[in-house]
Amino acid sequence: MIRRLIREMICILFLLAVMICAGQAEVYIDQEKPADWEERDLLRIYALYALDCDSFVFECGGQSMLLDGGNGPKRKDLVDFLKEHGWEHPDIIFSSHPHDDHLEAVYNALKLEQITTDVFMSPFPENYWAYGILDLQRKTARVLQNREIPFRQVFNGDVLTLGAAEMTVYRYDGETKKPDGRGMDVNDMSAVLHARFGECSILLTADIGGTIQKMLAADYGSGKLKSDILKAPHHGKTAVNTDLLKAVDPKLVIMTGKVNRTEECLKQLNGAGIAWKRTSYGSIVMETDGKDWYVNQAYSSEQVKKQEKQEKKRK
Question: How many CA atoms within 13 Å lie on the side-chain side of 167?
Fold first, then answer.
């Protein structure tokens, strides 16, 4: 009787394991998409080519969102891309934090009236400034006011929708202290976005540092953070905190830093057997039907050669 119960329990556990595995999304990298792919409801995320800058465009259900836009020199590339796809007026512009490598191109494009939006979102207040020199948030807010574009401050736990996609905001504000008692800097207070579409998810971590990554993992764990794809924190300039990497358990990591600034992160990912891509090799398109991901990169031969040349020089 006992043996029978044990056998039945083993069978149940095996079936549960199979069901769990079956529910996990696959991430197909540089592979041909199914013939009926374009007929399905999709979430598309474009990670635009940039060196040490973040610039992402979301498209789902006929709506679009620009998440950061890179620094000043990337303005033309950003505007050209948006025009090419008919997205000069994204439904949402979301700024993870007001550093120039994330916000300056957006600020300039708004100021020059090359793009507009229904609403501009940021976890920082309109009048935020720091160090006496970081004034990009206030400058952007003045442009928004002049163009009568609404500004909305978002907070930790807020949920945004884009078509059928849901995006949860995780963010530590200036009143939160690190475990050692130190306060938060601008990168620490970046907005982290967890986007979910069907069974598929991606975590975009802006520029949060190692301590914040560890806090995020401790506070939310895999129950909230587990994702198929992870955008490496702070462009992948350092290794991902091991607690966060374990909580997210990604199948693919996207790095937005230059080759010579992502070596530590690259070594970590290779050691863990996690696939990766860099935007320094060209723009990346991540597409999901809510069940699986197809990720393809528009490689720029010129940029690949330049990056490979840098790698050879260091060896």
Answer: 27
Per-residue pLDDT tens digits for 103-129: 999 999 999 999 999 999 999 999 998
Instruction: Specify the pTM.
Output: 0.89
Angle at 205 between CA 204 and CA 209, to 5 degrees: 165
Query: Is residue 44 pLDDT above 70, yes or no?
Result: yes
User: Which residues are paired to 56 by β-bridges?
Assistant: 47, 67
Distance (Å, whole) CA 31 – CA 42: 17
* CB contact set of 237 (below 8 Å; sequence gap of 6+): 52, 257, 261, 262, 264, 265
The CA distance from 199 to 196, in Å, is 7
The CA-to-CA distance between both ends of the chain, in Å, stands at 65
Question: Which SS3 state, helix, strand or coil, does residue 312 take?
Answer: helix
Grouping H, G, I as helix, E, B as strand and the rest as coil, residue 121 is: strand
Residues 164 and 197 sit within 8 Å (Cβ to Cβ): yes
CB 119 within 8 A of CB 92: yes
pLDDT digits (tens, 9 = 90+) for 154-178: 999 999 999 999 999 999 998 888 9
Name the residue type at position 131.
Answer: Y
With CA atoms as reference, report the closest residue to 140 among 123, 155, 120, 114: 120
Alpha helices, DSSP H only, in the chain?
2-22, 75-84, 100-111, 136-146, 210-225, 242-248, 263-272, 301-314
Q: What DSSP line would sit under 134-146, residue for residue?
A: B-HHHHHHHHHHH
- Order the strands of the 159-162 sheet from edge to edge: 159-162, 165-170, 192-197, 200-204, 229-231, 252-255, 275-278
